[in-house]
Amino acid sequence: MGGEFFVQYLLPVVGIVIPVAAFLWEFVIIGRKRLGYRVQMDTPVTGSIESVFPGVLPQLRPSSGESTPDLQDLSIVLVRIENSGFADIGGSDYRGPEGSLVGLHLRFPHRRVMGMAVTELSDDGLADSLVPGAGIAVREDTGGHIGVIDLPRVPLDRGDHYKILAILQRSRGTGEYPAPAVVGGISGGRVVQTRNRIGVPKMMVALTVFLVLVIIAQLAVNAAQPPPTPLDCASGKLTLLGSSAFEQVMKDAADQYANRCTGAEFAEEFEGSERGLDRLAEHAAPDPGSITISDGPKGDGYPMLTPRPLALSLFSVIVDRGVGVDALSTEQIRDLYQGKVGNWREVGGRDLPVVLVNRIPGSGTRNTFERRLLGAGQPERPHVSCTALKGAEQRDGAHCDAQVTADMTKAVAQIPGAVGYAEYSEAERAKLTSVAIDGVGANRDSAIDRSYPFWGVEYAYSYGELPADSLAASFLRFLTDQAGKDVLREHGNAPCAELPDPGRCSPEF
């Protein structure tokens, strides 16, 4: 609770206070008086210098009588001195020995100053402070091989500037020169090197990063919070039974409900539609603590069970990737499961024996498969475990039975030449080939418009009517009218309430 309070309430306050404090510190406290310098040019002397600064070079070169010394390894530096703060700088604001006329020192390591000139004044009145005798002078720190231009205590109003142009000769070393620097101090402020006003200042970058981190922290905390509790929450324990084809859908929906309604607890026992209906009917009395999911209508044998349609569900015929077939007609599928086709080459595939994988009798998925695609039952075949076929040499007419959907997808994936059927999202999860049927691929839209034939309706069954305040009733409302519909759609199903003809979900007795 303390961490949530900090992130939701204190952190936004900190996110406001720090930028404001940074602004006041930068621009009111330490930045109120700020003398800046900017090196605008530092380049070797070439013929092009004369064209850029005509007549300046002769003025800067020192002379001895009528002759000019032969200067080599020369460079020209242009430095801008400016008031970059928010307050005026007076002559008395410069730090230094009492009575000294010098306010700043412009230093050039590894170079001696051969000549200098003031080239630009933002205000003509600054000239009075930059004349000989006012403190401006050239000297050399011979011990450190550093050329120095002493600059006077020039009063600078906000925004004022002047420029110093100097000609220099190397006094030490080779290669690139160390950068010029201005040394000095301002009472109540500072001397800083300024940059060309392009790009984003570091302070702005730092503040932006800080604010982004504040926002990310708030989003992370909000994302970690459980969603708001819906008005229809109920508590208690609910056991979900029935269809293994719809197992993952129901588990995902139950997890979402439990995240929103913390008093709800779910148990899952998906052993197949028929087994789930049997277990519910065996209660012999209304039981709001259990519901069964069935791949299709319950039939006449369970008169005490009350149906509630959930969604139009999508199924697919699945094959081993090695059979070389990705499309079949309804007639070919019937011939396969009637035993009329024993080798895949007979339907355009490879020379490989067909292995029929079936769900056990009573499976809702098997009932849907036979009703939608076969139009009738299948020839009676002795029970054969799919595990017994794995790794064995197959012959024409081989078959096996799978207890639940997971067994079906595993058998088709592991037995060469296998063909089976399963709920579409489970086939996709197992990365199996779902064949097109009559030229139409398995997808929700084609099932809704009936161009794809292998579909069914998922029903939830309860023993009698459910109390309105029970967890079972609340969970079913969540599935049919609330966010649970998103889970159904995510798995490729179409909620019954959203169908163009919702009556299509009515149980078919």
CATH architecture term of the largest domain? 3-Layer(aba) Sandwich
Uncertain spans: none
Radius of gyration: 43 Å
- What is the helix fraction of residues, given as a range? 25-40%
Remind me, CATH topology of the largest domain?
Answer: D-Maltodextrin-Binding Protein, domain 2
Largest sheet entry:
10 strands, mixed
The CATH homology group name of the largest domain: Periplasmic binding protein-like II
Number of domains: 3
Q: How many helical elements?
A: 14
Strand content: 25-35%
| The CATH C-level class name of the largest domain | Alpha Beta
Q: Can you tell me about this structure?
A:
The protein is α/β, with parallel strands linked by helices and about 500 residues long. It folds into 3 domains: about 1-30 and about 195-220; about 35-185, Immunoglobulin-like; about 240-509, D-Maltodextrin-Binding Protein, domain 2 (3-Layer(aba) Sandwich). About 30% of the residues lie in helices and about 25% in strands. The protein is built from 14 helices and 21 strands. The chain has helices at about 1-30, 45-50, 55-60, 200-225, 245-260, 275-280, 330-335, 365-375, 385-390, 405-415, 425-430, 445-450, 470-480, 485-490, and strands spanning about 35-45, 75-85, 100-110, 110-120, 135-140, 145-150, 160-170, 180-185, 190-195, 235-240, 265-270, 290-295, 305-320, 325-330, 355-360, 400, 420-425, 435, 435, 455-465, 495. Strands 10, 11, 12, 13, 15, 16, 17, 18, 20 and 21 form a 10-stranded mixed beta sheet that branches. The protein has a 5-stranded mixed beta sheet with strand order 4-7-2-1-9. The protein has a 4-stranded antiparallel beta sheet with strand order 5-6-3-8, with no helix packed on it. A hairpin with a 4-residue loop joins strand 5 (about 135-140) and strand 6 (about 145-150). The chain starts with a helix and ends in a 14-residue tail after the last strand.
